[in-house]
Please model this.
Amino acid sequence: MRALRKLRPEPGAALVEVPVPAPGPGEVLLKVAAASICGTDQHIYQWNEWAAQRMRTPITFGHEVAGHVVATGPEVHHVKEGAFVSAEGHVFCGFCIQCRKGRMHICENLRILGVDFDGGFADYVVIPERNAWEVDPRIPPDVASIHDPFGNAVHTVFKGSDGDVPTSTVVVLGCGPIGLFAVGVARAAGARQVIAVEPNELRRGIAKQMGADVVVDPGSQDPVAAVREATDGHGAEVVLEISGVPAVVEQGTRMLAGGGRMALLGLPPGPVSLDLTGQVIFKEARIFGVTGREIFSTWMQMSVYLATGMVDPTPVITHRFGLDGFEEAFEVMSSGRSGKVILLPKRE
Amino acid sequence: MRALRKLRPEPGAALVEVPVPAPGPGEVLLKVAAASICGTDQHIYQWNEWAAQRMRTPITFGHEVAGHVVATGPEVHHVKEGAFVSAEGHVFCGFCIQCRKGRMHICENLRILGVDFDGGFADYVVIPERNAWEVDPRIPPDVASIHDPFGNAVHTVFKGSDGDVPTSTVVVLGCGPIGLFAVGVARAAGARQVIAVEPNELRRGIAKQMGADVVVDPGSQDPVAAVREATDGHGAEVVLEISGVPAVVEQGTRMLAGGGRMALLGLPPGPVSLDLTGQVIFKEARIFGVTGREIFSTWMQMSVYLATGMVDPTPVITHRFGLDGFEEAFEVMSSGRSGKVILLPKRE
Amino acid sequence: MRALRKLRPEPGAALVEVPVPAPGPGEVLLKVAAASICGTDQHIYQWNEWAAQRMRTPITFGHEVAGHVVATGPEVHHVKEGAFVSAEGHVFCGFCIQCRKGRMHICENLRILGVDFDGGFADYVVIPERNAWEVDPRIPPDVASIHDPFGNAVHTVFKGSDGDVPTSTVVVLGCGPIGLFAVGVARAAGARQVIAVEPNELRRGIAKQMGADVVVDPGSQDPVAAVREATDGHGAEVVLEISGVPAVVEQGTRMLAGGGRMALLGLPPGPVSLDLTGQVIFKEARIFGVTGREIFSTWMQMSVYLATGMVDPTPVITHRFGLDGFEEAFEVMSSGRSGKVILLPKRE
Amino acid sequence: MRALRKLRPEPGAALVEVPVPAPGPGEVLLKVAAASICGTDQHIYQWNEWAAQRMRTPITFGHEVAGHVVATGPEVHHVKEGAFVSAEGHVFCGFCIQCRKGRMHICENLRILGVDFDGGFADYVVIPERNAWEVDPRIPPDVASIHDPFGNAVHTVFKGSDGDVPTSTVVVLGCGPIGLFAVGVARAAGARQVIAVEPNELRRGIAKQMGADVVVDPGSQDPVAAVREATDGHGAEVVLEISGVPAVVEQGTRMLAGGGRMALLGLPPGPVSLDLTGQVIFKEARIFGVTGREIFSTWMQMSVYLATGMVDPTPVITHRFGLDGFEEAFEVMSSGRSGKVILLPKRE
Model:
């Protein structure tokens, strides 16, 4: 089969022939229908500092993957051959303190598909049975493949707001694919208004399609002032930080209303300096670190949104390529002229 | 009557004779039984930058006050003459968005006793009826007067832990009076263990009396390492930051276990730089700004602790002076050789 | 002025001339713009057992009222003459345990407008300033007058679901006006689907207009089976019981999914027999008693729904009469051929 | 090996020789150190209606079991030979909706140790690896074996109170072993006072040892009146119903304070008739069905209580027998002259 592999610790990747892997005990083999490209995959492709420290080569990467089960290993009792599934990429141990508390997504022994073991930019991929989430076969492959980042958005909206989205003003800071999904989820979850802040014009346009009531270009407007204006001066009850830019995190705290809640999903690359006294303590604001998705309660929620059509993620999906179009795919990702970019093995 | 007044915008204060004030509509007059000195009072006495910006002179200060109702104004229907009460020092409007949401303690029009209008370092003081909390007459005056800071501690323990104190390891950073009360409250609320971090030896000793299982001197031990050691490497589920020292806030985030919660009550005087990615986001930690006390649900809780004896605050009260001993009182406060210092008008 | 008064402890009421009341301290005088008729008003009109036990005559009734402030008593500091307000009919003491815990709506000394003192079926009415909720002057009088029952619906949806409406199947049992509002609120709050159960055909039609996905006539379909069918056999995560019929309450428990939540707002007139073991305990279901509205956090929420148009309550309002049309108004209420019926003093 | 088996569908049981079972994939073999007798085991022994409907013979019963791992099957990766473990008796599928939502204890495909497959009244027992909870080897076998019912108590205290035990009055209705454990847990979790209601004098005595502040004999005192008296007329914030007696459930609702919470763990054998209007709705009381234990967050909590000594369960353990003393063991269980009764295979 074909697999997009990082062969050596350096930028780039190669589409090579490798044997189809065999599922071990408790594992299933998927014929990949679609695999979408995450920002993390871009880091791996470009081989940034994080990738160089974290990963070992050679490895097939790609973790946002959907496909059909074509074989099952021993001790697989629930998922059947022929099932159409989307992969939860976080493989958890089930026995550490965090897993025992029901927080498998922050498992102390977390292993990540396409980072710690061979991933889904390939014709076939093996995942643990319990990481295979069955999706309605009527859902198209590209949508099936974006459950992972869509789940980040759902988790950020619910966890990051402490459940208080209905009737709240929700600000989304940063409209990459996850931010754009978050706009749609916040709207479907009953927000009073959704304000999207994003410098990229294309993405501001998609944010509108996803249901943003107000879009703010931070290049031409002060986002804090814009939020104050849209809220009669009170600020937003909920701020979802998905950019990872330190200065934007700090802005986010200044947009918060008294008693407001802020989710941090974007990963600042360095220290962030905050006015805790004025923007957090006297306001009794709450700040929630958010990572991954809850396994599998977030999946239950996102299935509702995707299977019922309450949220339509398709405006976010801007590009589709065959596996051998990977170079162009990563290029368009880097260009900023894209939303979500998806690799579809069959296309070729 | 006598009143300790800041007559001019400069350091110091004067004990002067002034007329006994008359309660207006909805107000009650208290004969002061005890008034404890808060860190804020020290700032006012020393006339620091905050005081210079915020306050107008002349004014009687002191907001942690208990006494007997000796007169009631018109439209007072619930509190009776003779009642023994402790004052909630936050006077709220009841009509702003925060009040309407039940967060009167972050009222947008908050006026503070002894800061915005004449306070309780005096023989008599006037407060709104609804700010008068009846206390059991068997509670001694000094304990009655510390409801305000004790309430800060109760609110920090409950709000700052999101209710998860039972079975958790709780770290208290900074053992001034509020931190010391927090040690006692966390213990009474069912913490697995309470770890107190404080450089002042006297206060570490009081922390032990209040129920700390482990006390850490940050001058001789790395507090983060000490917490890791006391928790088999996992970190603390709950960290209560009451020092307001930026470097300590940052340390606090590094002590947090995965899924941990941190309360911020101490007020950092400037920006605080945090590793949000490593210490908050990947851990899914939650950070809660905390201020004041919930009006009056925190008072309900603290009444249980103080009236039943579940928490004995008296080890924290180290000094008592008459009103005319105020100079010595403020001096001992500054020295660090004290816990809570209380002014008792009758004593003279 | 004219006032619709219960003069003697017997069925009926009389529209009589009485002096315009004067607002006392902390009170405001409203010129009534609209007053809607509640089921309670019907009980008073018909003088049922509850009314006979609870009320004293003579009294002007009517508690769902909106109007303009035309005079203010002493000690009124926030609400101004000319303001357009809707009345919170629950007058709370502010000093009992429940009020001190922020549950003013279950105040131990609750006094109810139009039940315990003169109400709003009149040209003018006096209410406490703090019970006057300012509404956007562009909201029409009839909508302004239904804040009270609309607030019941909002409170039931949020409290009764423990905040878990988004992505949940929500069943509304009983589609009188409050149930119909609840359909609209559940939809706006992000429910996956809303199922309305109601024997009255007219009201089932309004339920559809309010956004119900499925309407069930319990006369021709088993509601439990209908809910199972609409949920792939799992049952509903949220059931809102607004009928007060004991057999319907019992049915509601059988519709609940594992882990489901049920709100009880309807008032069963006698004991209700439940299979707690099978329908509550093994399912780990949660049952929430709900009454009134939270003062004023529910009002904040409902203002969002009504002021932004997120919920349009007008399909529920089926009849409007002048004050002197009261006999016809109560007749149409009794007939079941109505949704909400409103008295508009000006109309004559 | 010896095993206590129900050979035929009739009362009684036989201690017989059977082969030592072999652990399959993902399973471990325990050498039983202690197995405590649950009320369910008594139903099985006596072969009541529930047992006759639910169980198939022949089967070894007993599900509250602790022992040492002496062999592991294939695909066991975390639990090692030699580990001392207590068994979670609920075997969950991990794939149904409830499991996916993190509620494995109400799994739709739940299989129960000693009910649906061979249990622990034997020299050896096989359980799934993931149902083996490692306990500190210093914990004695009898205490290790009561994790299951102790976990019921912990789950009831926390889930049933919605987390509000600290500063609350907690009533425990019914002081069988689980109720007695609940007394100890409520005390350790920071209750203001714990009131235990129990007709059996021996058990009232143990309730006092476990930390009850007030014990009530319902044969000589009205429990509702007793709770009112102990709470200045207000009622209890938290009521834990562990008796399963319909009349006691109804009493429980009448003890509740406004805003109170009630847990239902006891299983009423038939319908329960409640005054929902007066005792639940107007009070805004909340009723929580509770079953089993959360897997494994409750285990994390109970480990804290049992491993640290915060709760000492030993006063509840009144009798210990060898396996061949089973007849006497079941007899003393039936007599009411016991707390927890434990079978210790080694003893013979």
Chain A touches chain B at residues 97-98, 101, 103, 105-106, 108, 159, 234, 249, 257-259, 264-265, 267-269, 271-277, 280-291 (CB under 8 Å). The longest strand of chain A covers residues 27-36. The mean pLDDT of chain A is 97. The longest helix of chain A spans residues 147-160.
